[in-house]
Amino acid sequence: MVGMGFVICPSKKTIVMMKFSELKEGNYVMVDFEGKMSRGEVSDLNHDEKQVCVETEVQGFWYEPAHIYPIPLNDEELMRLNFTKEMLEDGGVKYKKGAFRLEIPEPDNFSHIDMWYREDIRHNPIVHYVHELQNQYLQMTKVYLTDEVIA
Questions:
Q1: Are residues 86 and 56 in the same domain?
Q2: Residue-range definition of the domain harbouring residue 137
Q3: What confidence tier does 7 reach under pLDDT thresholds 50, 70, 90?
Q4: What are phi and psi of 138, to 5 degrees?
């Protein structure tokens, strides 16, 4: 369902707003192609037509924002991005990738996130979806957040 930039995410049955301006090359998203949901990576943006090219397992295809859905940030997605997980004594969870750190107050509670990279510390930035984390990570590290392992 489309209206005023809002879409209903088929997997969650909730209204999710996917802003074209939030998307960057390299972001991971879900796309709806003829009723089939697929995970993909943004490979190009057409700012004039407000279309997004997303590469899936099958092929790259241009999508309207109404057919693009954010991926909720959770433990499974952080593991897919090759973060390592450390359980903290206070019950919190710290996720690490290289020198980048992300901490949540308790397992599976992503309502409050602290993240830092060297001297750049961010308390509770707006990060509810994988693409938002990727964008914060890029701002902080100047490197794209992918699923590649960092030694």
A1: no
A2: 75-141
A3: very low
A4: -65, -45
**56 membership: H or E segment, kind and range:** none
CATH of the domain at 62: 2.30.30.140
Q: Which strand ranges, in their side-by-side order, compose the sheet holding 14-17?
A: 2-3, 6-9, 14-17
Same domain, 82 and 63: no
Are residues 80 and 43 part of one domain? no
The percent of residues in the chain predicted with pLDDT above 90, rounded, is 82
Residue 35 has pLDDT above 60, yes or no: yes
- Identify any residues that bridge with 31 across adjacent strands, giving them in sequence order: 38, 68
| pLDDT of 1 | 33
Q: From CA 2, how far away is CA 19, in angstroms rounded?
A: 13
pLDDT band at 88 (very low <50, low <70, confident <90, very high): very high
- Composition of the chain by helix, strand, coil, percent to 5: 15, 40, 45
Q: How far is CA 75 from the centre of its chain?
A: 12
Number of domains present in the structure of the chain: 2
What three-state secondary structure class fits 122?
strand
User: Would you give the distance in Å from CA 116 to the centre of its chain?
Assistant: 17
